Amino acid sequence: MHMDLYTMKGTADSVILTLSKHTVANMAAVLPLRPWTHVVVQGASLNADNLAVYINGKLCPAVTSDTAKGGCGWTLAVGAYPENLTYVKQIRYYSRLLSADEIAANATEACMSLASDYYAALNTSLLYRGRFNVPAAGSTTTTGAGSTAETQYTPMYPGHTLLTSYAYQGLNGVSGQHSPDGGLSKFWYDKLGRVVVSQNAQQAANGKYSYTLYDAQSRILEVGEKTGGSSPGTDRFLDSTSVASF
Known about the structure:
By secondary structure, the chain is mainly beta. It has three helices and 16 strands.
C-alpha cells in the first residue's frame, strides 16, 4: 500500500495540506480487504519517520518512508475535494496518538461513528472530522429510507441503533465494552490473563473500581470494590507488582 501523508492545518470546515511525505506499508496480514477500508496513520508528526499504519484495526509496519517533502497546493473542504479523494468517506485528524484498542474499535463501527466518542475526556483531541462523498438518500449503502448515514459492510437484522461495541486485547479478552444503557466499561488483566480490575461508567463517575483476588491455583479468593486511587493505566496487562500496589 502506498500512501501520501500530509501535515494538515485548518478549521472545522476546511483543511489546508501543506507538506507531503511518501510511505509504503506492508498490508499482507490484513488481506483480503473488505468493501470498506479503515486506515489510520499516526506518529509524533505526520511528516516524520517511524509512522504507524493500521488497516482495518491491524498494525501494518511501514516498509519505507522517504524524507522528500513537497507542497500540495490544494484544500479539503466539505462538499469540495480533489479527484483522488473520490473514494474517501471520512477524514479524521487527532491531536494525540490513538491506542491500538481504540483504533480496532473505530475500525469495526458499523455506521462509521467514533469509538472515541465514548472516551469523554479525550473528545477534544478530535480536531477535524470531514465527511466526503455523501450517498444519495436511501441508496443501497445507507441505513434506511431517506438516510445518508452509511453502514460499513455488515447488515444488521433487525435494523436498530442500540449497538454494543467491544475492543479486545491480544488474548481475545474484552478490554473495553460500550453499550447504549451501560456506557463504557474497561477491564484489566494480570499476566495470566485473569480479570483483576474492571470499571463501568457509573464507577468511573464516582472514582471506583471492581477487583478480584486469586489464589495460586487461580481460584477466586475475594471480589470487591475499591474507592479512590489512581487508574491502573492504559496497559491492559498488569504485572504482579502493579496489581499489588493497586
